[in-house]
Amino acid sequence: MVIVGQDPYPNPENADGFAFSVRPDVSPLPPSLVNIFKELENDCGTSMPSNGNLERWSDQGVLLINRTLTTTPGQSHAHQRAGWLQITEEIISAVARNGAIGILWGGNAHQLSDYFESDKVIKSAHPSPLSAYRGFFGSKPFSRANEMLVEQGLQKITW
């Protein structure tokens, strides 16, 4: 399974190498991550975690990857034209060829939907405060992904 984000958090103290995730000591949580946790709570009844580190998802086989892997501190999208899109597209293409489920949040991630089998892709708006109310909230990506895993005879993710 792969969850695709846009770019790392612009605050270098937040980014930890996993899309949307932050180091355990980061407080307050970035707004996009708060919205992810709100959707998770509404979707699966999971209460708000004690921190924003998503490594536990990665440990269960979820690839959390941004389309752009670096940025300039304090600037979102600063390295969008630095060649990362082609690299991450190749990575995601390879993962999708192996039957992975794709959770694609936002237009940037939606560009990758053709790499996934049509019954293995979940698309919605990005969880940022600017777009969460335009289709992210209520999209139920976590339960839908788990249903897809069960249909394949695979273990659910403990979100």
Automatic annotation (TrEMBL):
Keywords: DNA damage, DNA repair, Hydrolase. NCBIfam families: PRK05254.1-1, PRK05254.1-5. Belongs to the uracil-DNA glycosylase (UDG) superfamily. UNG family. GO terms for biological process: base-excision repair, AP site formation via deaminated base removal. InterPro entries: UDG_fam1, Uracil-DNA_glycosylase-like, Uracil-DNA_glycosylase-like_sf. The keyword Cytoplasm does not apply. GO terms for molecular function: uracil DNA N-glycosylase activity. This is Unannotated protein. Coiled coil: none annotated. Residues 1-149 form the Uracil-DNA glycosylase-like domain. The keyword DNA repair applies. It comes from freshwater metagenome. Transmembrane segments: none annotated. CDD domains: UDG-F1-like. Pfam families: UDG (PF03167).
